[in-house]
């Protein structure tokens, strides 16, 4: 079993950082940065921070190195300070996703003693039973799958940790709850902790810009820190376009139809672009929708590549499966029932007022997102024709 000092090195976001490494945690950020960047640890820490940013910019799914020494604590704290002053949602989400995913994988390597200790440190009411409890059985034909675990977590803790993960199967009603505890495998608690760690990087920077500018100015007096910051922002500037482009989903070379997408799709794409988590229904909808528009497999996979729990192999399998089955995307009625219609928020006239059908000579509601695209494209083609005619008239 590891002691708390070792666990904090591996997981610097643990509350015990404050007590076990109080000399680090209690420092004012300026003194902290000054001390680090003038110490002999400086080069190693700079290199590791830069590697993490490069990993995030390269859109890979896991940190290429994650050393479990004391410098790991410094790297974590410096990352948070840099993200705080850069104050860029996309970048923060990207780092948050890759870092928290690595954390999840590290947690899954821990033995049960260490995990128990980590849960206690986070003040979670997690209990460990010597004998595993069978909490679910699946019987399909003559095969049966038995789920058992030694861990259970108080339902209040569970709800708090799962509050950002809105997938159906995480709802309390879909889990085994007995006497106020949710029976759960440690890897599922770790997945909840992945989200907890992800959120640590996403604290909104609400400081008024003059305060932030003053803080930055002071930090930039530390030459070594300024140099690292400049390197990171220069790489970001050069990669930004390409990075944001992962979400650009044109399916014919030179033709971008994303402008004709309805608000429900734009909202999900913008969440994905920012690296926010998508619930299962949103994932299915976007997948079926892009598939109906015959987007190539790799373009669809790329849309999911910025999500916190992205796994290329699994996503590729699901995309292939959906392509084979040819599912139809949800209708407006279903999307409204899932609270995924954003017509009002986007003040979209076509969604709110509908369109005039010349064929039937009636005003009709938009009943399906694909109909929305059809109407938009029809209107665009009309506009184009009109412009062409006007040009010819002038000639
Ligand atoms: S009305 Fe239909 S197409 Fe428009 S945002 Fe709502 S669900 Fe999407």
Textual characterization of the structure:
The chain is an alpha+beta fold. It is built from 19 helices and 6 strands. It has 3 domains: 4-108 and 200-241, no CATH class; 123-197, no CATH class; 252-386, no CATH class. It has helices at 4-10, 17-20, 22-25, 29-37, 42-57, 70-86, 89-107, 112-121, 155-162, 186-200, 209-220, 223-244, 263-273, 280-292, 297-304, 312-325, 332-337, 349-353, 369-394; strands at residues 126-140, 143-154, 177-178, 181-183, 355-357, 362-364. A 4-stranded antiparallel sheet has the order 1-2-4-3. Strand 5 and strand 6 form a beta hairpin. Helix 5 (42-57) crosses helix 6, helix 5 (42-57) packs parallel to helix 12 (223-244) and helix 7 (89-107) runs antiparallel to helix 10. The relative contact order is 0.09. The model is unreliable at 244-250 (pLDDT under 50). Bound molecules: iron/sulfur cluster (SF4).
User: What's the story with the biggest beta sheet?
Assistant: 4 strands, antiparallel
Principal-axes geometry comes out as globular
- The amount of beta strand, in percent, is 5-15%
Number of strands: 6
Percent in helix: 55-70%
Radius of gyration: 25 Å
Output the helix-strand order.
HHHHHHHHEEHEEHHHHHHHHHEEH
First-to-last CA distance? 84 Å
Number of helical segments? 19
Q: Name the poorly predicted regions.
A: 244-250
Tally of distinct domains: 3
The computed structural class is: alpha+beta
Mean pLDDT: 85
**Strand order across the biggest sheet?**
1-2-4-3
Which distinct ligands sit in these coordinates? Answer: iron/sulfur cluster
């Amino acid at each position: 079993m590891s002691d708390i000092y070792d666990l904090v090195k591996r997981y610097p976001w643990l509350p015990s950082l404050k007590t076990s490494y109080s000399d680090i945690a209690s420092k004012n950020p300026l003194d902290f940065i000054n001390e680090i960047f003038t110490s002999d640890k400086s080069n190693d820490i700079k290199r590791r921070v830069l590697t993490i940013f490069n990993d995030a910019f390269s859109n890979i799914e896991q940190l290429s190195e994650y050393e479990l020494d004391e410098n790991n604590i410094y790297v974590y704290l410096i990352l948070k300070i840099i993200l705080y002053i850069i104050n860029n949602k996309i970048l923060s989400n990207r780092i948050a996703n890759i870092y928290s995913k690595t954390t999840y994988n590290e947690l899954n390597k821990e033995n049960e003693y260490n995990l128990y200790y980590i849960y206690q440190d986070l003040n979670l009411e997690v209990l460990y039973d010597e004998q595993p409890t069978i909490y679910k059985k699946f019987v399909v034909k003559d095969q049966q799958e038995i789920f058992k675990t030694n861990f259970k977590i108080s339902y209040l803790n569970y709800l708090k940790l799962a509050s950002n993960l809105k997938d159906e199967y995480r709802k309390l009603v879909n889990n085994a709850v007995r006497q106020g505890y949710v029976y759960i495998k440690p890897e599922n608690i770790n997945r909840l902790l992945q989200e907890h760690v992800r959120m640590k990087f996403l604290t909104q920077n609400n400081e008024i810009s003059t305060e932030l500018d003053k803080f930055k100015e002071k930090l930039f007096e530390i030459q070594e820190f300024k140099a690292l910051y400049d390197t990171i922002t220069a790489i970001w500037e050069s990669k930004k376009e390409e990075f944001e482009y992962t979400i650009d989903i044109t399916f014919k070379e030179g033709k971008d139809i994303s402008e004709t997408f309805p608000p429900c799709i734009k909202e999900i794409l913008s969440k994905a672009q920012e690296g926010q988590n998508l619930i299962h229904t949103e994932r299915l909808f976007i997948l079926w929708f892009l598939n109906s528009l015959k987007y190539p497999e790799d373009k669809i996979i790329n849309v999911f590549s910025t999500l916190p729990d992205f796994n290329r192999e699994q996503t590729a399998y699901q995309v292939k499966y959906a392509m084979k089955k040819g599912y139809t995307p949800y209708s407006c009625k279903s999307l409204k029932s899932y609270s995924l219609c954003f017509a009002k928020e986007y003040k979209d006239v076509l969604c709110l007022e509908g369109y005039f059908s010349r064929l039937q000579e009636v005003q009709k509601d938009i009943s399906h997102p694909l109909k929305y695209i059809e109407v938009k494209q029809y209107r665009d083609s009309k506009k184009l024709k009109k412009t062409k005619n006007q040009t010819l008239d002038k000639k």
